[in-house]
């Protein structure tokens, strides 16, 4: 009889425990998951927002303060604490929007904690991120996000782009010289043929054009070169291509002000820095 009573008591405890687990909300479960994640990864210094996300200012920034109406550029790297996720846009391809329209809400609220040039880390429960539906094929439903957000300081655009070019060169172990206009170049072969004496010159070229993400947006091979009037090309070509002669090859890293600026053709983002590998096959002045 005593054994039977003990068995019944054990069953009752198990039932109560199960019921207790089932009564936790998704918000409670995910908050516990986040706290466990921070403990296991020795993450400290985070503040919990009243809505439920956690943030930590890594770098407060030294630029201008921002608010909801501010038009800002950000780059970010996101992983998940409970799913296989890698979601990012790099500093070489930042996303621009009005701060008040940036999602998830935890991102825009955290960006208010820093100035331009700053960085903040945000851990976002799924209910404040992309919920049960997720974000297409990029982020599954019920994903808790761990994001490092960077707020671009491009108040002085030439200075900002110059720093990006230097970062790109260093990261890719490339060497280049900065000319007086701010264009970086590397003469692979100077060429021994005809010089380019003016922007009226007709140049036959093979080239490859890339973004700093290394995405190729245009090219013409040596087997199918193109002939162009230099004055019809972007300003960066007009300024830098005369550094070599026919038969020469040059690599260029061109700030956006000497490329397409804020009104680029399809396939090139606004204010994109462009990288070119150019071989000059012939020149007609």
Write out key terms for the chains shown.
alpha+beta; seven-stranded antiparallel beta sheet; 14 strands
Low-confidence stretches: none
Mean of the pLDDT scores? 93
Strand fraction band?
25-35%
Form type? elongated
Would you count the extended β strands for me?
14
- Estimated radius of gyration: 27 Å
- Main pleated sheet: 7 strands, antiparallel
How much helix, percentage-wise, in residues? 10-25%
- SSE series: HHEEEEEHEEHEEEEEHEE
Q: Please report the distance between the alpha carbons of the first and last residues.
A: 110 Å
Structure annotation, total helices: 5
User: Structural class, please?
Assistant: alpha+beta
Tell me about this structure:
There is one protein chain. By secondary structure, the chain is of the alpha+beta class. It is 22% helix and 29% strand. A hairpin with a 4-residue loop joins β10 and β11. It starts with a helix and ends with a strand. The mean pLDDT is 93.
Concise summary:
This protein is of the alpha+beta class. The chain contains five helices and 14 strands.
Q: How are the secondary structure elements laid out?
A:
Layout: H1 2-22, H2 26-40, E1 47-48, E2 54-59, E3 71-80, E4 86-89, E5 95-98, H3 105-111, E6 119-124, E7 145-151, H4 157-171, E8 177-178, E9 184-189, E10 202-211, E11 216-220, E12 226-229, H5 235-240, E13 249-254, E14 274-284
Antiparallel strand pairs: 1-2, 2-6, 3-4, 3-5, 3-7, 6-7, 8-9, 9-13, 10-11, 10-12, 10-14, 13-14
């Amino acid at each position: 009889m005593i054994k039977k009573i003990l068995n019944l008591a054990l069953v009752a405890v198990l039932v109560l425990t199960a019921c207790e687990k089932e009564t936790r909300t998704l918000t409670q479960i995910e908050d516990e998951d986040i706290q466990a994640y921070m403990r296991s990864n020795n993450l400290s210094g985070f503040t919990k927002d009243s809505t439920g996300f956690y943030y930590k200012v890594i770098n407060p920034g030294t630029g201008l303060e921002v608010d909801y109406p501010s038009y800002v550029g950000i780059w970010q790297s996101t992983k998940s604490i409970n799913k296989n996720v890698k979601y990012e846009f790099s500093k070489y391809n930042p996303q621009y929007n009005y701060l008040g329209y940036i999602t998830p809400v935890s991102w825009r609220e955290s960006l208010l904690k820093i100035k331009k040039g700053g960085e903040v880390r945000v851990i976002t429960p799924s209910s404040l991120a992309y919920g049960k539906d997720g974000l297409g094929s990029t982020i599954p439903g019920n994903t808790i996000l761990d994001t490092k957000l960077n707020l671009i300081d491009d108040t002085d655009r030439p200075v900002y782009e110059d720093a990006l070019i230097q970062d790109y060169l260093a990261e890719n172990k490339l060497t280049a010289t900065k000319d007086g206009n701010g264009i970086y170049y590397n003469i692979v072969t100077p060429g021994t043929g005809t010089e380019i004496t003016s922007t009226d010159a007709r140049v036959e070229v093979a080239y490859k054009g890339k973004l700093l993400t290394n995405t190729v947006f245009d090219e013409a091979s040596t087997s199918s070169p193109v002939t162009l009037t230099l004055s019809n090309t972007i300003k960066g070509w007009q300024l830098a291509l005369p550094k070599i002669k026919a038969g020469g090859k040059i690599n260029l890293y061109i700030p956006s002000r000497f490329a397409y600026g804020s009104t680029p053709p399809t396939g090139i983002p606004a204010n994109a820095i462009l990288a070119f590998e150019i071989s000059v096959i012939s020149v007609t002045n």
